[in-house]
TrEMBL record:
It comes from the Eukaryota. This is Calcyphosin. Its main location: cytoplasm. PROSITE patterns: EF_HAND_1, EF_HAND_2.
Amino acid sequence: MDAVDATMEKLRAQCLSRGASGIQSLARFFRRMDRDRSRSLDAAELQRGLAELGLVLDTAEAQGVCRRWDRDGSGTLDLEEFLRALRPPMSQVREAVITAAFAKLDRSGDGVVTVDDLRGVYSGRAHPRVRSGEWTEEEVLRRFLDNFDSSEKDGQVTLAEFQDYYSGVSASVDTDEEFVAMMTSAWRL
């Protein structure tokens, strides 16, 4: 394992110690930091941002991470690639059940889950806030979808965003059998 791999393991462990949504929270934080919407950060921005979250990297570690995910030679790391690499590795069994759940939601088959896709699979009519008249069924479905929408809340969830969400969940489930049982039950697969 090289120094950057060791740094990634350190960051992964620090994120996962914050619970199932640790990496997702880091992704949201970095997207807010990315004011120019370049989807990249330089080593100093990475180090400062992580420090604000209590995740400590020294200068050499931050520079090594940036070099690894610098896709265009600009001296900055690509946020999406970095965050994808930070996700804990999942077994093929876990990836397959996540993909199956996504496919169930993606009724149009276009690779993106929207509220229209959800409408064909789930109903929000029984939600307490719909029953009270506070929310519409559309609002319930949109809020449900927002749980998986890890980038800007655009009302569309890609397989990568769905996998990002479940990578955090996966890290907190010990065995493949337990994870598959949980997914099968939750998504009625």
